[in-house]
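Ticket #4471: structure export looks truncated?
Reporter: QA, pipeline team
Priority: medium

Steps to reproduce: submit the single chain below to the structure queue and open the exported record.
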Amino acid sequence: MSTKNVNRIKAVYDLATPQELTVGRAWYPQAYEIARIMASDYGLCVQTVVGVIAALSPRNKWERNLLDVENLVEAYCVDRAQAAAVKVCTFGKNKEKAIKILDLDQDPFTDAIMDVLSGPKLREFASCILKLDDVCIDGHAFCIWNGARTGLKDVPAIGVKLRAEIKSDYRKAAAKLGLSPSECQAVTWCAWRRIHGVTV
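Actual output as written to the record:
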């Protein structure tokens, strides 16, 4: 156990503005509500929309992520073949994952969606939106935990053991701060992005 890493997380939390505290704590519940409304609008399961959000999230600004999701879902619901032509601001393989998740809507078990997402960060992101007990460890979360800014392309591969250690430290920091782990991660993410001028 590394107390210094827990303290680094808490230190970034302490730098959060009142607005970042509010936005961060509400971030995942608001994301869920957006997914719920979109699911209702298009006659889909909320788990499906959350899975599509997660699939299209890598290197994508949040506002653009949501626009991409709606464009893809709308095209898919009109004609599945049209979905392949929709342009998104993430990787082609991630769009393929999103379409596979839409194909699963008749069988919307979270496990099946998680299997399609496959990557740990995408699974964690979906889990946090779905109100499951998890922590989303992306490049920013790693930098906060590590106490140094690193370009996202230079963040080392986060293997199973390191990911478990980082999650454990976020859980410990969250417990000390009286937050859920996902709230702690979201607040520190908001503060870190402002401090370092990060836009994605």
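Status: closed, not a bug. The export was complete when the record was re-opened. Leaving a note from the reviewer for reference: Residues 84 and 96 are 8 Å apart (CA to CA).
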